[in-house]
Specification:
The complex is a heterodimer of chains A (212) and B (417). Chain A is 44% helix and 24% strand. Chain A has eight helices and seven strands. Chain A has helices spanning 2-10, 14-24, 28-40, 56-63, 75-84, 120-133, 151-172, 182-188, and strands at residues 46-50, 67-72, 89-92, 106-112, 134-145, 191-199, 204-211. Chain A is globular, with a radius of gyration of 17 Å. Chain B contains 15 helices and ten strands. The chains are: A alpha/beta (212), B alpha/beta (417). The complex binds iron/sulfur cluster (2 copies).
Chain lengths: 212, 417
């Protein structure tokens, strides 16, 4: 019996993933994506999106006139992405392979809710590699779950998050992790943080950094 | 106290991921020609791998891949130990700078997630599938062959493993049924606390005794165990408790039902049987697998990765064929790794239905596995002569540098960079 139940639960679809992320961020992630596309990406930009998922952001960015290359490790996600953003290019590739894309090639590198999926070693590597493939003055735009900066926010966030995460997991079997010490890591590489915005009690953050 | 709790958790909570830090570990005193091994980042596995290698005097580089804290077999089946995972750990670990060669030894049981040709294409490393059990790794290295010995490919389910998995099955079943049982106690007081230990005992017995019980694996073996347990119960109750006939009958039936359920669930805790509902309930073999002879190029991979010894080599035709269909547990490793898509089956490769996969986070396993990363396709041509001739299409050179192993003087051979 349990096998059947689990099998049913496991059945993942890209749509389910999108719903999960929307619920977990209380809809905020869609607004952040719109902000990224309209403010942080310019027409004609060469953009790399790491972990493009179902291509919602890629579609917004191509509408704005950017050339987008989206990478992801999930074939089903890529299949949906190809449909939702027909003008973008998509490739099955791990984040750690981005250094093979060519030095100083991109104006923007964006990642929403995908850096937190990486292991610490991977994250370290990807941040370093991203600096290598950005043009001088290019920007890294990351929106992800991050620990809040103030202790009381962290405690409240934890209280709110638990039931929300449980509900999301029950409904869609998806969850996220917080991205830890992200800005510290940026400081250690060739990045200068330009802009930072926090949402949802400081637990969801948008960080924009420029390659120095 | 903390360590004790952790050990208890380790003992029963194998259902849950238990991650340790991914990255490069030194085993013993490796140099620039020492072998490079890959494993998962499930803490128990990493610990066992290191202990075994140190005991056997192997100097090696160990890459602990980020598999979300799940063991090799489950992670590979659930889409967390894939070609991409290997690509990623090879790049991020910096192993390139430590060795001069590019030979990589993967655990055999990762083959249903990791594609030999994909790793080769995307990393430039030469992968090999090592033995199924880490205890055979020293022998494999010493032999200096790229192919593992047949007996080292076969997955075993010895009494000790059966006991451990039985306790975990029991723990899981109890977790799963505790709520319905508690609710039932509104009408049937005392049922729940008598049922839970019973479930646990039946779970352990069904797992340990799986080879000895009559019937097909699944519900049939469960019922045989149930009948046996019920008989013991009747004898005991008549001698000690003098139960009246109705409760006696009720409990007897209940024991058989619980046991049938446990028997159904047991295979998902074993490395040997497919979790197919029809097979487990009706005892009818559903699994079909076949090699299209014209497409086989004799690369040996299906045989090397199969944990159930399903294939045989036909030395005349220089091709492989299915020789032992009954043993096939539909793990999908051969299908994943066949370069010419010569292997056809009636099941989807690399699907996992075990509870662990349902608990872990991330984008689900099943869908992620349905399509794989592009790998080079090989045109089927008539198979060549022997492995040592140039025309051979086999995936491996037959000779590898053999390795001399020393016995370490003490247990302190492990160093972490
Ligand atoms: S070509 Fe396919 S069927 Fe033939 S030996 Fe290789 S893996 Fe097996
Ligand atoms: S023959 Fe069956 S058991 Fe063997 S590798 Fe293929 S799917 Fe797995």
């Amino acid at each position: 019996m349990s096998t059947l139940v689990y099998m049913k639960m496991l059945e993942q679809t890209p749509a389910k993933y999108d719903r999960g992320m929307r619920l977990l961020t209380l809809g905020r992630i869609d607004r952040i994506k719109r902000e990224i596309a309209s403010i942080w990406v310019e027409p004609g930009n060469d953009v790399l999106e790491i972990g493009c998922g179902t291509g919602t952001l890629a579609a917004l960015m191509t509408e704005r006139g950017a050339h987008v290359l989206g990478i992801d490790v999930s074939e089903p996600m890529l299949a949906v992405a190809r449909e939702s953003a027909p003008r973008a290019e998509f490739r099955h590739m791990t984040a750690t392979e981005i250094d093979q894309l060519g030095a100083e090639r991109f104006d923007r590198i964006v990642a929403t809710l995908s850096f937190s999926e990486l292991s610490e070693g991977e994250l370290e590597y990807v941040i370093g590699a991203s600096a290598g493939i950005l043009k001088p003055g290019g920007k890294l735009v990351v929106a992800d779950e991050m620990p809040a900066s103030r202790w009381w926010q962290r405690s409240v966030a934890r209280l709110v998050r638990w039931p929300l995460a449980a509900l999301t997991f029950l409904l869609t079997q998806n969850t996220t992790h917080a991205l830890r010490r992200f800005e510290e890591r940026l400081d250690r590489t060739r990045y200068r943080v330009l802009h930072r915005e926090r949402y949802l009690l400081g637990t969801l953050a948008l960080v924009v950094a420029e390659k120095a | 106290m903390w360590n004790f709790l952790k050990d208890v958790w380790h003992l029963f909570g194998r259902l849950f991921p238990f991650p340790t830090k991914p990255g490069l570990r030194r085993i013993g005193d490796p140099d620039r020609s020492s072998p490079v091994l890959v494993t998962c980042n499930y803490e128990l596995t990493v610990r066992k791998v290191i202990q075994t290698l140190v005991r056997d005097g192997v100097d090696a580089w160990l890459l602990v891949a980020p598999t979300k804290g799940i063991n090799v077999w489950c992670a590979a089946g659930g889409g967390h130990f894939t070609t991409d995972t290997v690509v990623s750990i090879l790049k991020t670990s910096g192993i390139d700078n430590h060795v001069d060669h590019r030979r990589l030894i993967l655990p055999q049981l990762s083959a249903r997630g990791v594609n030999f040709w994909g790793v080769k294409e995307h990393t430039g490393w030469k992968p090999r599938f090592g033995p199924a059990d880490i205890k055979d790794l020293a022998a494999y290295l010493r032999a200096g062959k790229s192919r593992t010995e047949r007996e080292h490919r076969r997955v075993k389910f010895v009494v000790k493993d059966r006991f451990v998995m039985g306790t975990n099955l029991g723990f899981n079943t109890v977790l799963l049924l505790i709520l319905p049982l508690l609710i039932s106690s509104i009408w049937l007081t005392g049922l729940w606390w008598k049922t839970l230990p019973l479930l646990f005992v039946l779970s352990v017995a069904s797992s340990v005794g799986v080879f000895w019980l009559p019937g097909k694996v699944g519900v049939q073996k469960g019922v045989s165990l149930g009948v046996l347990a019920a008989a013991i119960f009747v004898v005991l109750s008549q001698t000690f408790w003098q139960l009246p006939p109705w409760p006696l009958l009720g409990w007897t039936g209940w024991i058989v039902v619980l046991s049938a359920y446990v028997g159904y669930d047991m295979p998902s805790w074993s490395p040997l049987w497919r979790q197919d509902p029809k097979e487990l309930v009706l005892g009818v073999k559903q699994t079909q697998i076949e090699i299209i002879q014209e497409k086989c190029i004799n690369c040996h991979l299906c045989d090397i990765v199969c944990p159930s010894d399903v294939f045989r080599h036909d030395p005349e035709a220089k091709k492989y064929e299915v020789a032992n269909l009954d043993a096939c547990q539909a793990c999908g490793a051969c299908i994943e790794n066949c370069p010419t898509e010569a292997i056809v089956s009636n099941f989807r490769g690399g699907t996992c239905a075990c509870p662990t996969c349902a608990i872990i986070d991330g984008v689900g396993a099943l869908k992620r596995k349905t399509q794989k990363r592009e790998v080079p396709t090989v045109e089927p041509v008539p198979a060549a002569a022997n492995c040592d001739t140039e025309a051979c299409q086999c995936a491996l050179e037959d000779r590898e540098p053999g390795i001399e192993l020393q016995t370490p003087e003490n247990e302190n051979g492990i160093r972490f960079p």
